[in-house]
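DM from R.C. (forwarded with permission)

"hey, sorry to bug you on a friday — could you get me a structure for this? deadline for the figure draft is monday and I only need the backbone to look sensible"
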Amino acid sequence: MLRTMLQAKLHRVRVTQADLDYEGSCGIDEALLEASGLRENQYIELYNVNNGERFSTYIIKAPRGSGAISLNGAAARRAMVGDLLIICAYSQYSEAEIEKHEPIVVLVDEQNRPRVKSLRAAV
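My reply, with the result:
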């Protein structure tokens, strides 16, 4: 049996741009992708801390060091610039893999720069 478990999350990143006229996706600073192990085009779930919206899209790479978290297309209606998001990716794991699996949790500073690379999922 495979179970769907948290793979990684970016915790309380701040939206820096919302562009309704851009094709849908979520732009994420390449440094955050590297810290979390998330990849371009990967499916993600997003949770807006400010308004409770929950939605999904896929990742596009934003320039390294930009601090960018951009919501594009329909996703731009789910949050305003300045809102805090939790961005999660889930993967399937066998029972044996779960025993050793530890999700990656990336905390950020005020400019969306990674400040902690990995924590237990209890965060």
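R.C.: lifesaver. The chain has two helices and nine strands.
me: no worries. The CA atoms of residues 109 and 115 lie 6 Å apart.
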